[in-house]
Amino acid sequence: MARVLFLSFLTTVSVEATVGQHAGGKVFRLKPENKQDLQFLKNVSHTGKVDFWHPHSIDLVTTNWTVDFRVGADWASQVQAGLEKIGLKYDVLIENVQSLMEKQFDQNATDSTGYNYERYHQWNEIESWITKVTIKNPRLISRFEIGQSYEERGIYVLRVGKRTRFMKPAIFMDCGIHAREWISPAFCQWFVKEAVTNYGIDSTMTALLDKLDFLIVPVINVDGYVYSWTKDRFWRKTRSRNSGSNCVGTDPNRNFDARWCTIGASRNPCDETYCGSHAESEMEVKAVANFIRQYRGIKAYITIHSYSQMCLFPYSYTYSLASNYKELNALARNAVKVLSSLHGTQYEYGPASIVIYPSAGGSDDWAYDLGIKYSFTFELRDTGRYGFLLPESQIKPTCEETMLAINYIAAYVLNHPY
Ligand code: 0X9
Ligand code: ZN
Ligand code: ZN
Questions:
Q1: Which protein residues have their CB within 5 A of the ion that is ligand 3?
Q2: What is the pLDDT of residues 271-311, one digit of tens each?
Q3: In sequence order, what DSSP letters do the residues of 330-347 get, joined into one string?
Q4: Which residues does 337 contact at the CB level (< 8 Å), separation at least 6?
Q5: CA–CA separation, 289 vs 172, rounded Å?
Q6: Which of 75, 133, 181, 360 could form a disulfide with 262 if both were Cys (CB 3.0 to 4.6 A apart)?
Q7: Full residue range of the structural domain in which residue 261 is found
Q8: What is the rounded distance in angstroms from the CA atom of residue 235 to the CA atom of residue 389?
Q9: What is the phi/psi pair of residue 90, to 5°?
Q10: Does residue 107 sit within a domain?
Q11: What is the C-alpha to C-alpha distance for residues 113 and 332, in angstroms, rounded to an integer?
Q12: Which residues does a 6 A CB cutoff place in the pocket of ligand 1?
């Protein structure tokens, strides 16, 4: 009689209980020994609240089969009570499906240091990641502190590549010039993760790291990045004070010494594109520019921004075409083609002055005029649906597809020495 009571109770509550069905719950394992046990399982299954894991359907179950089934959180205790009442022995295989799902997600997303690459991280987490990933991969990574920010945070370069006795050609890639473009630092970290986990496993990555060094700046504009976490999510500029103004910060991508402040930049410290008091007035820009100037063998410069899904190249400060325009255009075209092959993400490409807007003082033009003839600005996802608030769920697909483009450019650079 107890069984009947239990089942009628099940039926009454079933309608409102549907919502939490997938919220988690428990997984039971049991062996029906007789017709009564089988009937109990069937009744439970007919409520639609039970997910048969093994076998996949109750119809396959006969006595003495081992049955694994999941019951949603809202029903788990009733079913458990029912099992107790009819005296059918069971094991609880998974006590809390929800927390296991979370852990499993974490395991997929984290490396051996527990770092989750599918999340956005605060600067202090990124900084300790920089230290850890360097210590954990001594054969592939060395870390340089290339300077400090206005608020005295470290600016780091990770040199990623197989250690060799001779200097290798290098590809410089920076992230986080603009504070609010959070997907950018996430990508630089992803790139380093991919490099260290695929070296010696994936032949493309192994070949690249054997023959090239990647010089990665995970976050250039560290002060702005911190500010975008703590005070203003949509902060773009640095955090340096401007004399004679209450407005703070300079646009670091208007502060490079490339026809500085002649077009598409503002002289007003209150503007988002303020070019600064002079070229390289920003310590962050100076640190990066000094590093690139003194480092021999940088063959490509790549800077990661968001958003708008574009692969841009010089010039920005003029509508005139770069001397190797045809080569850059073909390279960009092929890079966005491989990028789109993964998830169908469409990119525009071309000289930035034409494709977005003319603007002087950008890092790409500056690097190009320094003699680095492969110079690109990537504007990652999306096209404005989420903009700077690109959800964490898009970190992985965004980084995966971008990897293809960066690796394509790297392979091209390797095969076209100069
Ligand atoms: O305006 C920029 O600095 C970049 N776009 S963003 O929306 N991320 O701010 C584009 C940079 C293109 N290159 C140059 N302007 N030099
Ligand atoms: Zn940007
Ligand atoms: Zn994917």
A1: 397, 400
A2: 999 999 999 999 999 999 999 999 999 999 999 999 999 99
A3: HHHHHHHHHHHHHH----
A4: none
A5: 11
A6: 360
A7: 123-237+251-415
A8: 12
A9: -150, 160
A10: no
A11: 35
A12: 178, 181, 253, 305, 312, 316, 352, 359, 362, 364-365, 377, 379
| Three-class DSSP category at 130 | helix
Task: Phi first, then psi: give them for residue 23, nearest 5 degrees.
Answer: -70, -15
Mean pLDDT of 340-369: 97
Angle, CA 354 vertex, CA 350 and CA 357 arms, to 5°: 115
Q: With pLDDT > 70 as the criterion, what percentage of the chain qualifies?
A: 92
95 carries an active-site annotation: no
User: Scanning the structure block, which residue is given the tokens 């998830």?
Assistant: 343
- Residue 12: the pLDDT is 37
- Indicate whether 34 belongs to any domain: yes
In-domain check, residue 104:
no
Share of the chain above pLDDT 90, in %: 76
Give the rounded distance of the alpha carbon of 344 from its chain centre.
18
Whether residues 137 and 226 fall in one domain: yes
Tell me which H or E stretch contains 377.
Answer: strand 374-380
User: Does 84 share its domain with 157?
Assistant: no
Pocket test for ligand 1, best of 234, 262, 301, 377 (most atoms within 8 A of CB): 377
Can you name the residues that pair with 145 across neighbouring β-strands?
Answer: 156
* Distance from C-alpha of 14 to C-alpha of 263, rounded to nearest angstrom: 67
Give the residues across from 172 on adjacent strands: 215, 301
| CA separation for the pair 83, 85 (Å, rounded) | 5
Residue 28: predicted pLDDT = 92
Backbone dihedral angles phi then psi of residue 145, each to the nearest 5 degrees: -95, 115
In a domain, 272, yes or no: yes
Q: How many domains does the chain have?
A: 2
For residue 8 the two structure tokens come to: 């009628």
Residue 24 has pLDDT above 80, yes or no: no
